[in-house]
Protein: ABC transporter ATP-binding protein
Organism: Deinococcus navajonensis
Amino acid sequence: MWRRPQQSTEGPQGRRRDPRQLARLLAYARPYRPIFVLGLLATLLSSGLNLVFPALFGRLIDASFLKVGSRDTGPLDRTVLLLLGVFLVSALFGAAQSYLLSRVGASVVADLRRALFGHLLTLSPRFFSDHRTGDLTSRLTADVGTVQGVTSTALAQLAAQSVTLVGSVTLLVTTSPRLSLLTLAIIPLVIGTAVTIGRRIRQVSRQVQDSVAASSAQAEEAISGVRVVQSFTAEALERQRYGHGVQVGFQAALRRAGLQALMSGVMGFLSFGSLAVVLWYGGRQVMAGALSPGQLVTFLIYALQVGGTVAGLTGLFSQFQEALGASSRIFELLDERSELQEGPGAEPLNRAEGRVTFRNVAFRYGTVDVLGGVNLEVPAGQIVALVGPSGAGKTTLVNLIPRFWDVTQGQLLVDGRDVREYNLRDLRAQVGLVPQETLLLSGTVEENIRYGCPDASAAEVEAAARAANAHAFIEALPGGYGAVVGERGVKLSGGQRQRVAMARALLKDPRILILDEATSALDNESEALVQAALDTLMRGRTTFVIAHRLSTVRGADRILVMDGGQIVQEGTHETLLAAGGLYRDLYEVHLRRQQAEGGALQELGLAFR
């Protein structure tokens, strides 16, 4: 919980600013091209109809004010009806484009989240040890949500704004060339300001996204380990840590809001200031008889459309900058490649015999040598126990079998073939794992047992539970096999969680079984129940048992004693005791601990008499 791994979330600076990321992002919209094209067409038609409105409004002004005293209202009535018709059709097309493009955006976001999550599941454990869960979750949710607008409405708005800008400028020039020159002179200044401030907005947006991810990671750590937090009365410390992260994000958000406000203010001043100048000059033109009042109103509306379009384009530019920052974080994950690669001729593995061979196997994590020169031949069906002090390399050794890691040197073979030559999914399907820290999903008991074999019948689930001596307590739960276990199985005791995990592994029916401190979380009664089941169920499977309690390994066919990443002793319980050395030292420590615990329990019993 308190570990602070080296983060690798930052990509190269040049990569963040690469506009080609947007093209890559838009590729996710390709399957929805027909819907997008319809939405784009509706947008263009709506924008085109909006160009008709200023001209009709000018005609309405002239029909009203240039015929003062006239009783002929025909031109006025026809103009109003035409205006209403234009508004209606434009509104229909606007509603259509809003729905169609929103559908495209939602579909792209769903696909992107599925692709990102699916890709994360293919990465090696080494990747997850170097990245915080909260940061990955933030990218999966917040960053993907940020790019939604770009994959849907932003492109359509870009097309619509472009049509409106070209059409409005053309009609401006047609209405009054002189006023047009005055109006268009301000556009380069607006665009230059937008580009300059927009670049800074993109940088700050990335900082906001990074700070949100960091604070989310801190919250995830504290919430997942809330019992540790409360047991150490560290609530104030966690509030301080999370508050600091939120404050950093808040400051970055304020900087972004300030830049956006600056852009909005500058754009507003330039736009409305230019309109004031245009209105002043146009009023002089009307007084001189060079323009009619309707023409001036038409020109002003077109000028407003030009100003609004330029402002809209600058807003789109800012939106694209934010999307660039978010997409860079997304594609950094999608571009990650697992170090556990399959060769082009990966062999299928339908049903393994279970023979495992280590040939001069060494493993290094970073700069630390964890294993060195391990040689071991385990026949199919043999039960092998691994004992030794903490950090001896026991768990690392067995984690090489399902390729959670790859050997740094030497070979690891299953049934005489290097594990790197097998299809990775097939290989792992042959290996069952019951770890020390049992992870249950937040669903029902039945869903957790069926996790490794989704097609199993209810009878098979119950048989696996009975074999793991879990059926009795499951039946006693409210809802039985349909009882919800809570997040990480919090509603079950440690022994109950372990027995459900044991049933899950047994239902998978693996040829190779790994029990990593599988009984460490059990009380004496639960351990006896599980051990009784395991004594029968391990027969016929190649089984690796890791245990600190030496009483749990006496029945193994072979006991391997590990120290410093090497096998230093090997034999049965009796031969190892007779040989002395590290195993007998561990056994004597175990006996003293048992005697001490027994004495403490006896004193406790006397105290409660």
User: Anything to note?
Assistant: Strands lie at 356-365, 368-378, 383-387, 409-414, 417-418, 431-434, 512-516, 542-546, 558-563, 566-571. Residues 1-17, 600-609 have pLDDT under 50 and may be disordered. The chain has three domains: 17-334, 349-430+515-609, 435-509. The longest helix spans residues 235-287.
